[in-house]
Amino acid sequence: GMMYHYAGQHRQSLDLLQQSIRNAREIGERRILPTALNFASIASIAVGDGDNALLYCEEAAKVALEVGYQHAPAAALNARGLVLRYMNALDAARETLERALTRVEALGDEQGATNALLNLAMIDVEQGSLEAAEHRLATAAERCKRLDSPPLLQTLLDTCGALLIRRDRAELGVRLIAAS
Asked: Which H/E stretch holds residue 94?
């Protein structure tokens, strides 16, 4: 389902993720639910369904605790922060992502920390805190060098592009976003 999301086919992504959730529930496989629910939250926001996106995040965190996953509650916070950002609830998104960042760094989850940093950087850009965005992006770029994650690299390029647009370098920013 997430491959469709990365390809920009959000409705197909959400349909497949919802089917995965139904299948997991039908066979009683709760261990895969937190991941599927987190991805469904991201796909839901991409199709404009913020209310269900938040519900998916809440259920992902609850199930993660029930099955004893260390990383999943932090991933659910990361997803919730992303959803809140897309809903333009920037202060709530910032607070949620800062909590997620603290948790994933404590767990040594570099990919989760990079994801939280990138989302916080985008909030910085959206709120006009451009120096803070630059600092977070520099840290995230260093981490992206160590990680082999096309989705993180895409988010890094998108966020850098948004920063360039805000820095009156719109042509370069648009080219960077288009390349991601």
From this structure: helix 90-107
pTM surpassing 0.85? Answer: no
Structure tokens at 178: 């288009």
Inter-helix orientation angle 170-179/150-166, to 10°: 170
Residues 93-139 have pLDDT tens digits of 999 999 999 998 998 989 889 989 999 998 998 898 988 988 898 89
Tell me how far apart the alpha carbons of residues 62 and 73 are, in angstroms, rounded to a whole number: 8
CA distances from 150 to 22, 91, 115, 156 (A): 28, 28, 12, 10
Q: Could you tell me which of 30, 25, 22, 26 has the C-alpha nearest to residue 1?
A: 22
Query: Per the structure block, which two tokens stand in for 125?
Result: 């850009």
Tokens (6 digits) for 89: 């609830």
Summarize pLDDT for 145-162 with one digit per residue, the tens.
888 887 778 788 888 887
